[in-house]
Design goal:
single chain; 119 residues; mainly alpha; Rossmann fold; 6 helices; 44% helix
């Protein structure tokens, strides 16, 4: 697909890794050390956010619109100029309260269950 869309020049000389399929853990390790992640995967967009890495989403829309609104993901429809511009301009988005909560859901559920059993 790189050749089909004429993107060889952006890869040459850049720090780009093109690999065969990876295990989930290997993929997470690469994501954690990336500067930008280019993907068409919904799951990878979200993983990129959790790693604090901006992503370029090779689609016209995303199910994770909040990542676009916060600046963590850029949409780049399949168009050479838009893809190149999105990759070159990708920056981390807003840092603040996560749109996905504080990571204390299990604790909150246990408290609700404990409190309801005490009544």
């Amino acid at each position: 697909m790189i050749a089909q869309f004429g993107l060889e020049d952006i890869i040459r000389g850049e720090r780009v890794i093109v690999t065969d399929p990876l295990s989930y853990l290997d993929m997470l390790c690469l994501q954690a050390g990336a500067e930008v992640i280019v993907t068409d995967s919904g799951g990878v967009q979200k993983e990129a956010y959790y790693h604090g890495v901006p992503s370029v989403v090779l689609r016209e829309n995303t199910e994770w619109i909040e990542l676009v609104e916060l600046g963590w993901a850029k949409l780049a429809p399949i168009n050479r100029e838009k893809i190149v511009a999105a990759i070159r301009s990708a920056q981390p988005g807003e840092v603040g309260e996560s749109p996905y909560g504080r990571g204390d859901t299990a604790e909150s559920i246990c408290k609700i269950m404990r409190d309801s059993l005490m009544q």
